[in-house]
Amino acid sequence: AGAKNLGNGAGQQFITGICLTDADCASGCCAGLNGGAVCSGVGAQFQNGKTGCGF
């Protein structure tokens, strides 16, 4: 669903969408999760097993 927004740094990826860097995310936060990463709200970057923005 959000594959077109992955890795382009355009800030278009939605919350919970897969990301490679903070720049991919509309929220400005790409948080590590289970060996990958998802866009997250800054306030939720450590919730549900996430390891923080910029992981």
How are the secondary structure elements laid out?
Blueprint: E1 30-33, E2 36-39
Antiparallel strand pairs: 1-2
Mean pLDDT: 96
Straight-line N-to-C gap: 23 Å
**Low-confidence blocks of residues:** none
Q: Could you give the order of the helices and strands?
A: EE
Please indicate the count of domains.
Answer: 1
Biggest sheet overview: 2 strands, antiparallel
E-strand count: 2
Secondary-structure content class: mainly beta
Total number of helices: 0
Major β-sheet strand ordering: 1-2
List the keywords.
single chain; 55 residues; mainly beta; two-stranded antiparallel ribbon; 2 strands
Give your account of this protein's structure:
There is one protein chain. This protein has 55 residues and is an all-beta fold. It has one domain (3-53). The chain is built from no helices and 2 strands. It has strands at residues 30-33, 36-39. A two-stranded antiparallel sheet has the order 1-2. It is globular and about 25 Å long. 29% of the residues are buried.
Quick summary:
The protein has no helices and two strands. The chain has 55 residues and is mainly beta.
